[in-house]
Specification:
Oligomer: single chain
Helix content: 25-40%
Shape: globular
Largest sheet: 6 strands, parallel
Number of strands: 8
CATH topology: Rossmann fold
Structural class: alpha/beta
Order of helices and strands: EHEHEHEEHHHEEHEHH
Distance between the termini: 12 Å
Strand content: 15-25%
Organism: Oceanitalea stevensii
Protein name: Alpha/beta hydrolase
InterPro entries: AB_hydrolase_fold (IPR029058)
Mean pLDDT: 94
Length: 223
């Protein structure tokens, strides 16, 4: 039995990962979703991840999207010795301070913040583009209603990345297209197992069973 911690992005509700958790459980890898509340800075988000992970013993973490940026700083936390980066940020091994968002995103979202809060992640792009990431209109509506509004200050923060952090981690990379192509190349350079499923950024909603199988295979490969 492999116990999996699913790390959700601060920009999305933790509930989006529940279908994947259910499918992993059916494959013999009981999974729990670890989400974090919106916070003004990465330091609070990192502390929330660390506190949640520290409450139980895990065999592997699976980090989605923005959550991947926090894995290097969490390496060494009980259970964070194996990780799958699932369409997620994957910092370089050199370490340093990693921006939580590229400058282009900060520039695009800064002017549309209201009362110090960013728009919901589901509202960052044209509705038809976002809608295509969901299996149906009802799921899109439900997720949008639950999506948090993150403080705009968060985008100006950085996440600490220890130098040589991959030495203490057995990793793998699963991408859902080419958005994280640079991260996929980095994982390949590190010699990690890599898989790509052409599903879009929320592939675990459109094909939770297929993604669960891919995650399960990658987790096995890291073992």
């Amino acid at each position: 039995m492999t116990r999996v911690a699913l790390l959700g992005s601060v920009f999305l509700p933790a509930s989006v990962l529940e279908p994947l958790a259910s499918e992993l459980g059916r494959l013999g890898s009981p999974a729990s979703v670890i989400g974090v509340e919106p916070a003004p800075g990465p330091e609070q988000v990192l502390a929330a991840y660390a506190n949640a992970l520290g409450t139980r013993r895990w065999d592997v973490v699976v980090a989605h999207s923005n959550a991947g940026l926090y894995v290097p700083a969490l390496t060494g936390t009980p259970g964070v010795g194996r990780a799958v980066f699932m369409d997620a940020g994957l910092p370089a091994t050199a370490g340093g301070a990693h921006d939580v968002a590229p400058a282009s995103l900060r520039e695009a979202l800064g002017p549309v913040a209201e009362d110090g809060l960013l728009p919901r992640w589901t509202d960052w792009w044209p509705e038809e583009d976002v809608r295509a990431l969901f299996p149906d209109a009802a799921t899109h509506r439900e997720v949008r209603a639950a999506t948090p509004r993150v403080p705009a200050a968060y985008l100006r923060g950085t996440v600490p990345v220890p130098a040589g952090w991959t030495a203490a981690l057995r990793g793998a990379c699963l991408t859902f297209g080419d958005t994280y192509a640079a991260e996929r190349r980095r994982a390949q350079w590190l010699g990690w197992p890599v898989r790509t499923l052409p599903l879009g950024h929320l592939g675990f909603l459109t094909d939770p069973a297929g993604v669960a199988r891919a995650v399960h295979e990658l987790v096995t490969a890291t073992g």
